[in-house]
Structure formats: structure tokens, C-alpha cells
Amino acid sequence: MSAKKLNLKDKYRLLTRDLDWEYSYADRKKAFPYEEFEGIKITDWSKWEDPFRLTMDAYWKYQAEKEKKLYAIFDAFAQNNGHLNVTDARYVNAIKIFLTGVSPLEYQAYQGYAHVGRQFGGAGARVACQMQSIDELRHVQTQIHAMSHYNKYFDGFQDWTHMHDRVWYLSVPKSFFDDARSAGPFEFLIAISFSFEYVLTNLLFVPFMSGAAHNGDMATCTFGFSAQSDEARHMTLGLEIIKFLLEQHEDNVPIVQKWIDKWFWRGTRLLSIVAMMMDYMLPNKVMSWKEAWEVYFEEAGGALFKDLARYGIRMPKFVEVTEKEKEHISHQAWWIFYNYGHAAGFHTWIPSDEELDWLSEKYPDTFDKYYRPRWELAKKMEAEGKRFYSQALPQLCTTCQIPMGFTEMDDPTQIAYRSSDYEGEKYHFCSDGCKHIFDEEPEKYVQSWLPVHQIYQGNCGGASVEEVLRDYYKLNLGADNLDIKGSPDEQRWKEWKGVA
Amino acid sequence: MSKVYIALQDNDESRYIIEAIEQDNPDATVIHQPAMIRIENENSLVVKRETVEEKMGRDWDVQELHLNLITLGGNVDEDDDQLSLSWNV
């Protein structure tokens, strides 16, 4: 007679309960030294439950299957010159931002989960963090493999780890994760598992990847959706984590709320670059940033926060500002990059007439009034041979590190400007949200490595901007930067496509 | 009322899973987008192993859903026979 097969629930229980052990001769507190300092109270770790009840044997089995499918597609993509099938050469610039800005975050997530997974006293939490850590390592690896094909044919992909550590706009995503990883283990989970994975990553991986498919980029769509199949699991854990913390002790509620407030705002600022990728960098459009925000934050997040209300959790602070920002943020972000296109590791451009019309249609209340005239002016100046690049280095927000280009949302012609004084120094912010985060933890944010400050302090080499870009950032000037018009990327694309 | 949702890669396996979901959740809305299919429903949604097996004509493990899953929203509960999504109302 064969042994009875265990069902899913029993298998998971055996993995997460009976793999743990009692500390008979060692001090438990010394084994888990980071578990208490944040003020979070855990009364019973055994209440932690993965709703998917994924055990290691099933994890390896399904992850192996995902990888086989994914790499078969990468092979097919490379063997069939998949780069020639994308809508046009402009599209590839969104992928350059992905490799330099997002893929290194996957690596940071891998390190972060490996670290916090060690710090939790509960076996269920440790197993979940271990799986997620391995997932994140898989994500960075598959992304590097997928994009290595583009590196053979386009500029801007060659030195992405170096660029991530140094280039001004890449300090935005880098500092976001540095902030999360230098927090305690519970804050890290609320920051990444809940606020980022559950509330916000859908906006990057779902409509944008669907957009990649719509623009003929089989490799990116496939790694994106393959990663997202793990993310669906991470999101579910994010929700379970927050419920677990709130059910463990009522004292956890205000601490968790404070972290939700902070990380929701940090996340929305980080996503302003995704907003611009969706509205300006996909030649074939799937949906506007505003529509994506409405579906994936307002609707999905609204349902989520209604569900959490029974614990005493409310919507994140400053959520009302984001309701207005969805009308503006992508336009303001792309304008910043158009102004600093000489200092970016990807190409910029003026939207085509059809694209301007699409933006007018998608943003009827704001685009024609505030943003279309700027592009018409840029077009006119370009035609007159007066393409304008801002030469002054921008002031950066101390919290999100984005150049101070966002406006007051009730007055979109006025740049928003906030400041705080701390120990005799003045610090500058792009918004009430970023100022609030600084004011809560000034001793952390006064240490921010702000790229513009660092250049002025002489820590980035050279006396001129050109030397910083060339020698410190390692940009191939004249190839990686400036407009797509007249770039080597564009020239090669035209040759491949047989157009003059 | 709050909507739960699930999105799957648009491929031959998902086609049967979607058919099964439609059968077990008659009020669900199916939305086709490039390379993906999104299904949403008020408050709850269930994916039943038995129905998927009937559509596919083969054994199907609920955990196989992970291979084609893109995203979901709602409280998840999974066992050997089904995966369900719900919001507490």
C-alpha cells in the first residue's frame, strides 16, 4: 500500500511549523537581534500563513518550468533578429531605462529579502523571504539575458551597473531601495512587499509589459510577465504580511500606518519615470498613465484599503495629491528629460503630431492647456536649429532626488518648492509628501547622496558637465545621449529598415 | 462593492482556464489586452480545479496556475481543489 499523498495544507504546515526549533541553550533574542527595535510586537509567529501554501518542492518545479519557457523565447527572439520587429528605434530607449533603473533594483530586492529572511523568528516568514529572494535574483538574471540582445545593436546598454551607481536620475531608484534596505526588517516588508509590490508594481509590470508586447518586443514582454508570475505571489504575501502585523498587536497599527504613508509617497515619486515611459516612450499605446493609475491604484488600491479599514488603517497620506498628479506627472517628467537630454543615457524626442493628438485625447483637462504649447514651441525651436538643452544643474529634492520640476497641482505653472531647516542647514523638497518624510527622519535623509551636490563638491571628477558625463558616468557622448534624431541608433535603424 | 481581479498570459492554456472561470463565475467581466487577459468580478472569484480539468481534458494542479499568472487582487485562499479571491465586505 502506498503512503497517502499529503494535501497542500498539510504539506505547508509540515514545512513551516515542523522545520523550526526551540532555542534550548542559545538566547533567542540574540539569534534575532533586529526583531524588536522598530516597536513591532509579534505574539505568535505560527499565525503567519502563505495563502498559496507553496512548499519548496513545488516552488522548484514551477520555477524551473517558467525558466524553460522563458529561455526558449529568448533563443527564438535572438535567432530571429527580434530587435528588428520593435515598432521603432525610439521604443528601445524605454528598455534602456529599465535595464539601468529597474533591473538593479531586482538585485537590491534579492539582497534585501536574503537579509530580512534571516532576521525573522517565524519559519513561515523565513521561507517566504527565501523564495522571494531567489525570485528576485532570477528576475535580475533574466532581465540581463533578455536585454543583452539589445546591447549588440543599440547604444546605452553597455555599462548599466556603473551607471546605476552614479548617474543623476538613476539615484532616484537606487536611493529608494537604499532607503528600504537600511530600514528595519519590518519596515522593509511594508516598503517593498506591501507598498511597492502590492500597491504599485502592477503599474510597471502589467500595462507597461502589455505595451512591450504591443510594440513587438517579445523578449521584454516575456521576462516581464514571467517576473510578474512571481510578483503575483509576492503581492499576495504583501497583503498577508500587513494583515499578520495588524492582527498580532494593536500597537502595530500606528507604526504600520506611518510606513504605509511614507512608502506610498516614495513609490509614487519613483513611478513618475514609469508614467513618462508609458505616455511618451511607447510608440504603440496601450493605455495612458492616468488610465493605468485609475485601474491599478484607484480601483484596486481603493478596494484594498476598504478591506484594511477594519484594522484601523486608512488610505495613505497625500493620496488626494496623486489624484491631481495623474493628470500632470508624465508630461512634467518627460519635459525634464527633454531639457536634460544631453545628460541622459538614452535618447529623447518631441512627440509626433499623432502622439500629441493622443495625449490631448487622453488628457482633455490638462494637455492642451499646459503641455501641448511647450512641445509646439520645442518643435518650432528645433526647426529653427535652436534645440535647447538646459545647462544649469537642477536643484534636487532631498527625499526623492528628482529634479525640482514638478508643479503645484492646483497651479501647474508654478514649480512646487518646500524646505526644512535641520541643524543649521536648509533642505529642499519637491512636495509636501517628500518634506513630510524628511521631517519624520531628518537624521537619515541629511545623509542622502545627491548627485548635483556631489558634482558641485568635486566628488564626480572634472570641472565641466561634459567631463562628469564622459569620465564619471562613462556615457559615450554623442551616441548614448541627445535626441534620437541624428543619433547612431537612428542611423542604424534606418539602414536595417532600408529607409534613407 | 469592491472588485477582485486576476490576469493571465494570453495563451492556449489560459484559454481553458478563462473558460472555466467564466463558467464558475457567470457575472465576471473578461477584458482582453495585448498579450494578457484580465478577469474581474464584484467581491469574489473562484478558479475550480474540476472545471479547468473538464475544459482541458487532462489532470490540472491548481498550482499550475502560477505558470500563466500575471497579477491578482483580493485575499487569496488556495487548496487542492480551488483558488479563490475575495474582499471582506
From TrEMBL, chain A:
Tell whether Transit peptide is among the UniProt keywords.
no
Enzyme Commission no: 1.14.13.-
Which region is the signal sequence?
A: none
* Top-level division of the source organism's lineage: Bacteria
**Annotated keywords:** Monooxygenase, Oxidoreductase
Question: Which residues does the UniProt record annotate as the domain YHS?
Answer: 410-449
Annotated transmembrane regions = none
Q: Which GO terms describe its molecular function?
A: monooxygenase activity
| UniProt enzyme class | oxidoreductase
What InterPro entries would the database entry show? Ferritin-like_SF (IPR009078), Phenol_Hydrox (IPR003430), RNR-like (IPR012348), YHS_dom (IPR007029)
- Please give one Pfam family short name: Phenol_Hydrox
Signal among the record's keywords?
Answer: no
- Xref: Gene3D superfamilies: Ribonucleotide Reductase, subunit A
Q: Which SUPFAM superfamilies match?
A: Ferritin-like (SSF47240)
Identification of the protein by name: Toluene-4-monooxygenase system protein A
From TrEMBL, chain B:
Provide the GO MF annotations for this entry. Answer: phenol 2-monooxygenase activity
Q: Which UniProt keywords apply?
A: Oxidoreductase
Which InterPro entries does this UniProt record tie to the protein? MOase_MmoB_DmpM (IPR003454), mOase_MmoB_DmpM_sf (IPR036889)
Q: Tell me any Pfam family this protein matches.
A: MmoB_DmpM
UniProt keyword Plastid present: no
Q: What is its EC number?
A: 1.14.13.7
**Source organism superkingdom:** Bacteria
Give the protein family. Belongs to the TmoD/XamoD family.
What is the designated name of this protein? Phenol hydroxylase P2 protein
Q: From what organism does this protein derive? A: Nitrincola nitratireducens
**Which gene is this protein's source?**
dmpM
